[in-house]
What does this fold into?
Amino acid sequence: MKPTTDKKSHLSLDGLERMQSVRTTFRFSKKAEEALDRLRKTTKITMKGMLDRFAELFLKDKAATAMLVKEAATVAASHDLGVRKTWVVSKATLTLISVTAQANGLSRDTLAESLVLLADEVIRTAKLQQPEKHKEAQKIIGDFEKQVRQIEDQLGDLLGEDDPIYNRFRFVGTILMNLSFAIDAEIKNGTPVDPDDMAQQG
It folds into this structure.
């Protein structure tokens, strides 16, 4: 069988190559290092995943890139990039950062620093807004739980409390009740809601 050399194959190989991970070292300021520590603690995303995601968001959109470049110019003038950090990143992201930096007369480190600081700002803003949104979610869930309890009573009257359908349906109300308690604990104590623990109450 002859090796395939058509254009589609070249594109596929190029795509696979761009997905490869590479190890590289960036120089950051103390401020960015603190932002990185916060991001590690407040998100479950790997640093590679985070950098890939934010590079996708802010370096492939002209308006967002212009904003980032403007911020990077301030960083270049005022930040001491003395902290060395080695990261595993996708080859595509590293290329995107390098090409964007070069096109705008910036160092790769300066642009990466600005990307980290912007990521930190975006996530912190989202975290500040989250409690209010979770309060709204708790009310919606509470209203739904009342409906579920009514249906549970109807099933109990119809089938009896020993019926397997009734008993399985009861779990729905219990899960909703636990979720409401977990949201309440998050709002009052800052305990994050575990997406996988259906028994969590706080």
Observations:
- The chain has two domains: 21-124, 129-189.
